[in-house]
Design a protein that fits this description.
It is built from 21 helices and 25 strands. By secondary structure, it is an alpha+beta fold.
Length: 662
């Protein structure tokens, strides 16, 4: 929580504390409350170790579950602090069917932190470069690391480490100590266009380094692996991360632990063995990916002379591949799906759909709407490219395992989606339980609402990608470090002003959080006895219900269809004023990501862990039980933090005063 620390006076213009770390237990008792200078995990370690020791001293159990705003970033750290969080957990891996990528034994890792060591290492590389021949070049794998300051939502510090893979070595240059004044040999290396630096986001890395050392000569030679892979049809989206490209090209899983990827320790004088391994593997993988992609031929636009049966790929205007297939054997047919054939069009038999939601301009429908492949379509010839059969490499190769269980892996994009913070301005769920008036009650009736058919088709196509067999869904505990359900809901970006926003929020709430049948019956019986009802109380005083009724987030196989139905019902509804649907393309993609998280078991209540505790009995209302729910982070955000802010003057508080008020 950063609001409290904004009330504390700065010292010589510098912020003393940037955040407040708070941990509450299932009863709402504060277990940890401390100001921290940064949001680095290192700042939390001491306080959490004391909490762990306290629990041991007094014979209490260690934590069984943690709720946090950023589970992707906090998970590994919390599991290290509290091994109990790893008990009986079946982790979700990004590419579980692939072998782990490892450095071969013959590849050496050489960390260097002195100018002389860096110059000596670079000399061994540049010895292979023919400087007299301007057309000659050498290729290195390139990557860089820096500290991430999570106090400012991922603000980065200056580059701390450069990794360069070449031949049998990966050189790790620790450059933080130079404060931007890089050794001359390293600057010359980065400025040399004959030295090709292959990597992911490598051009941005080079530009960043150039700016940090105020070089008037540009740092050049970057080879973007994502563009290279997309141009060869290996991946369909140039935004893919290095791990995804590695899976597509090398058929191996590149481990990207969050605590290393988002770390504040890259400028340490001595890097840990885990840091060295992580850094070396990224650079070495980049070099191997480049060499592999260099063997692939570039696709070419299909010509008139290409015979039927020629393997082809179909691309969108932005170059993204949406499907693979062959030139149809029925080229002589004059029409296809009520569209005329012409000399500027090709008839293609689709065998493999890459982007089900992609719209075919000549047919004005999505690929998914045409049913299972194979099927024929007409495409502008300029969008049909050759696709050698030996390059038909899916992003995630088929598993050699004989298991019939479905793959519930989490992609890197999904992990990033789940770890993004949701600001108060973006959170459209905050008034979900506020009383509704007669107008809003009428709005909840969507029977006469107008849907956007094209938006619905797009959404259904996206969501169809993640269908699977409900009988084989995971029953295991996937993680004991989970996300607040309200934060998960709010990750779908929709307009707060849309007329169906609150009805959608209430419908989503009721789909995700199912009232306990026994509690609901007791409450309903009491409400009927006083002339009211469950429905009436839900409309006008939902918070009263939730204090007296436990709710569960059902297992994935039950939760998935409930949530999907809400998305497909409300997503295409048009606002009466703006005539815009509730879900745009981004919102449909967000909805798909939430469904993937549901399918992976990351939102359902963990089996066997009590999340409600009875705090008392409501003697004024039929002796109904009063519960406390431990599922969310609101007890810390709303209770402790807001109370803490009221204990301090609104500004100019000294650090000592603020600390004593804790």
């Amino acid at each position: 929580m950063q609001q409290i620390t904004k009330q504390i006076v700065k010292v010589n213009g510098e912020t003393v504390f940037t955040a407040t770390l708070t941990v509450t237990n299932e009863y709402g008792d504060v277990r940890v409350l401390a100001y921290v200078a940064t949001k680095s995990h290192a700042q939390y370690e001491s306080a959490l170790l004391k909490m762990k020791a306290s629990l041991e001293m007094y014979g209490h159990a260690q934590p069984m579950i943690f709720y946090t705003d950023n589970p992707a970033a906090d998970k590994q750290f919390l599991e290290q602090m509290f091994p109990s969080l790893k008990a009986d957990v079946v982790p979700v891996e990004i590419y579980p069917m692939l072998k782990q990528l490892e450095l071969p034994d013959e590849i050496g890792v050489s960390p260097q932190s002195s100018a002389s060591g860096i110059e000596e290492a670079l000399a061994k590389i540049t010895d292979d470069l023919n400087v007299e021949d301007e057309t000659s070049s050498i290729v290195v794998g390139f990557d860089a690391e820096w500290n991430v300051d999570t106090t400012k939502r991922g603000t980065t510090r200056p580059t701390a480490v450069i990794q360069i893979a070449y031949g049998k070595w990966v050189h790790i240059f620790q450059i933080a100590r130079f404060n931007g004044k890089l050794p001359s040999a390293l600057k010359s290396f980065l400025q040399n266009p004959q030295i090709l630096k292959a990597g992911r986001n490598v051009s941005q890395d080079l530009k960043r380094l150039q700016n940090e050392c105020n070089s008037q000569i540009p740092f050049v030679g970057g080879v973007e692996l994502a563009n290279l892979a997309k141009a060869r049809g290996v991946i369909s989206d140039a935004r893919a991360g290095l791990a995804h490209i590695c899976a597509a090209v090398l058929h191996a899983c590149l481990d990207k632990p969050t605590d290393l990827r988002v770390s504040s320790n890259w400028d340490n004088d001595v890097l840990s063995s885990e840091q060295l391994q992580y850094a070396a593997l990224d650079a070495w993988a980049s070099l191997q990916i480049y060499h592999q992609l260099s063997q692939f031929a570039l696709p070419e636009v299909i010509t008139d002379s290409a015979p039927p049966g020629t393997p082809v790929s179909i691309r969108q205007d932005d170059g993204q591949i949406i499907a693979h297939g062959i030139l149809s054997l029925e080229q002589h047919e004059k029409r296809c799906r009520d569209v005329n054939h012409s000399s500027s069009r090709s008839r293609v038999t689709i065998h493999h759909v890459i982007i089900p939601a992609a719209i075919l301009p000549l047919h004005s429908v999505s690929l998914a709407s045409l049913g299972p492949a194979p099927f024929d379509v007409l495409v502008k010839r300029s969008k049909v490219f050759s696709h050698p059969q030996n390059q038909d490499t899916p992003p995630i190769p088929p598993s050699s395992s004989t298991s019939t269980q479905p793959n519930h892996s989490l992609s890197e994009d999904l992990l990033q989606f789940l770890s993004k913070p949701v600001s108060a301005e973006e959170n459209w769920t905050v008034d979900i339980d506020k009383p509704t008036d007669a107008t809003e009650d009428a709005d909840d009736d969507i029977s006469g609402a107008e849907p956007d058919r094209l938006t619905l088709a797009e959404g259904l196509a996206l969501l169809r990608e993640i269908e699977s067999n409900p009988s084989a869904w995971p029953a295991a505990i996937r993680s004991r470090v989970l996300m607040d359900i309200w934060h998960a809901m709010a990750r779908i970006k929709i307009s707060k002003e849309h007329g169906f926003r609150r009805p959608f929020a209430r419908a989503l709430r009721d789909a995700m959080l199912i009232p306990d049948a026994t509690d609901k019956k007791c409450i309903s019986d009491y409400l009927i006895s006083i002339g009211s009802s469950w429905a009436e109380m839900l409309q006008f005083n939902a918070k009263w219900l939730w204090k007296r009724c436990k709710r569960i987030i059902p297992p994935p196989e039950q939760l998935y269809p409930l949530v999907k139905e809400v998305y497909t019902t409300f997503g295409p509804l048009l606002d009466a004023k703006t005539r815009k649907p509730l879900f745009n393309s981004r919102a449909w993609k967000d909805a798909g990501n939430v469904l993937k998280a549901i399918r992976a078991g990351l939102l359902s209540d963990p089996p066997g862990i009590p999340l409600y505790f009875q705090m008392g009995v409501d003697k004024k209302h039929g002796n109904l039980p009063i519960y406390r729910c431990t599922r969310e982070t609101n007890s810390a955000e709303g209770g402790v933090h807001h109370s803490g802010r009221r204990q301090l003057p609104i500004s100019g508080v000294s650090a000592c005063h603020a600390s004593s008020r804790l």
